[in-house]
Amino acid sequence: MKSHRLTLIALALTLAACSTADDELNADGKVVLTVAMDAGLEAKAIEAFNARVAQFEQANPDVDVKPQEYTWTAATFTAQLAGGTAPDVLTVPFTDGRGLIERRQIADISTQVSTLPYAKALNPTVAKAGQSSDGKQWAVPIAAYGQALHYNRTLFTQAGLDPDKPPTTWAEVRTAAKQIAERTGQAGYAQMTQGNTGGWILTTLDYAFGGRTEKISGDQAESTVDTPEMAEVLKSLRAMRWDDNSMGANFLYDWAGINQDFAAGRIGMYVSGGGNYGNLVTQNGLKPADYGVAALPLADKPDAGVLGGGTLAVVSSNAGEKAKDAAVKWIDFYYMGKLTNQDAATADAKTLADTKQPVGVPALPVVDRATYDKQQEWVKQYVNVPLQQMKPYTDAMFGQPLVTEPTRSTQEVYKILDTTVQKLLTERDADIAALLKTADADAQATIGRG
Q1: What percentage of the chain carries pLDDT values higher than 90?
Q2: What stretches of 304-389 adopt beta strand conformation (E)?
Q3: Which segments of 104-219 are extended strands (E)?
Q4: Which run of H or E residues covers position 126?
Q5: Domains of the chain and any CATH numbers
């Protein structure tokens, strides 16, 4: 009897694992599709999003789209998925794609994606972030970036610096930061340090100085945090923090916090993704005249490169078959159409421009360069961002060597490095050699488990 019960339980579990999610239908029999909308958007941005929803529903009358404010965090997604509170369509960082696929926390939409007209024209470097081990495209890369140096043109001018000639070396960054701090009283340069962003930016600087934080050989991963290049990065930061006093007083910045203070004119320079202008304007009230962005300075070393990453559009594993079909149509319409189709590109640009949202923010292409250039021409009449102030970045963004983010236990290692940079910036006598030795051992233990 006991054996029979165990068999039935095992069979039930097997059937549950093999079953597919049911589609949710509204009273009119339409497929209900919940789609993520960035949390904290200003009224005009929400208006623009809702306008796009209306356009999609007009073209797809069998789908009822429900926008849901949502911010991705890896730490909460599993519980949200289990509780059915995650939207059907959401966006995640490149670094989380493979893990979500392996754990089957997102739906396999490779069949639907394969029918898209540009499926084979995706940039292979970025497409890998959304592929399973057998090469199927479970997630769609919708945005890619290379890190850049963002700077406040107004603070540059107040400090006696030329805003049209931002730093091109890290020595120049240090000099400019010191001058800004001394002449304006604001932080000349600021650094993210928490919420895994400290490790993200520290890794960015390590790449820029010619280092890497991991070495992959087949299935084996080795932490390479403790290197001369990373030591050089920490020495540079320590000099700005303790010798020059040019980094302000906040050493617990995350991405949202540093964006807020930069937009408010309290930071002269910081490092983040090159396409960050839209967030700074729509969610942080940046004055366009204050904004400048430049190519990330690279050390004169063979392996120096720009950390690149991006965003994947994924579909929750809770979505039913009809919802999966609708979800890929939404991804194509909302995220990809504006990059690959002239009518969609101009419609999207017009909608954004009509609602005073940024149009023309530079971004690395998720498709080929020719398609990107075409798209820029299609939307030229609607561009409302200060492109001239972005030339120090756009003139160089395609020519800089891009290096993908670390692949093993990425966010966990970033968290370890959060502690490293926090200690460096808050403890005057922090021992760099000891910090790196500890971080390297912790990172190796973490990627060994991954």
Answers
A1: 72
A2: 306-315
A3: 140-152, 214-217
A4: helix 124-127
A5: 22-144+309-382 (3.40.190.10), 147-307+396-449 (3.40.190.10)
